[in-house]
Amino acid sequence: MIWKLSIGILIFLGTSLYFYGNSLPEERFLTKTYHFKSSKEKVWEIVRNIEKQTSWRTDLKEVKILSINPETWKEKTISGSEMVLTTTEFQEKSLWKMKIIEPAYLDGNWVGNFHDLEEGCEAKFREFVRVKNPFFRILSFLFFDMDKTMNLYIQNLSTYLGESFEEKNLRTTVE
């Protein structure tokens, strides 16, 4: 009798989680634009050096280059999660697009645009994530804060450039 009740509770919980996951948006977009004091060339050089990103990104433990052509690499975070990315488009010192290859439950891309300013550089980072599975969608909303992750990326980059991070130089767009 108790095992029937336990199975019923598990089915109820599983169904509830499934419907809750389906109520969350499958796709998320976030854009951050930041005005760096450093030149576009300097910002570009640091961002594009994939292997050396562990020297300035505090969330990153390890980067392993998997392929040169196409440019593909694996990032391992301090928390232990891994992601495989590949460059899909590249325009020297102005545009870098990459796509998430793994984990399989996650689809998305990251785009960095870099523009000269009279004093420094404007960098625009856009991230798109799609999670089709409703259970993984719940986990992504609980444990993957796109806003926090992108803020940390920009703060880390500012620090590495020898600049202090200034909130007034940051614009956020959520779609």
Tell me about this structure.
- Helix 1 (2-23) crosses helix 3.
- The chain has helices at residues 2-23, 40-48, 134-143, 146-160, and strands at residues 27-36, 60-67, 72-77, 82-91, 95-102, 107-117, 120-130, 170-174.
- The protein has a single domain, classed as Alpha-D-Glucose-1,6-Bisphosphate, Chain A, domain 4, CATH 3.30.530.
- It is 32% helix and 39% strand.
- It is α+β, with helices and mostly antiparallel strands and 175 residues long.
- Strands 2-3-4-5-6-7-1-8 form an 8-stranded antiparallel beta sheet, covered by helices on one side.
- The protein is elongated, with a radius of gyration of 19 Å.
- The chain contains 4 helices and 8 strands; from the N terminus they run H-E-H-E-E-E-E-E-E-H-H-E.
Quote the distance from N terminus to C terminus.
49 Å
Low-confidence stretches: none
Note the run of SSEs as H and E.
Answer: HEHEEEEEEHHE
- Give the biggest beta sheet: 8 strands, antiparallel
Provide mean pLDDT, rounded: 88
Strand order of the largest sheet: 2-3-4-5-6-7-1-8
Number of domains: 1
What would you say the CATH architecture is?
2-Layer Sandwich
Q: How many helices in DSSP terms?
A: 4
Strand content: 35-45%
CATH topology: Alpha-D-Glucose-1,6-Bisphosphate, Chain A, domain 4
Radius of gyration, in Å, reads 19 Å
Number of strands: 8
Output the structural class: alpha+beta
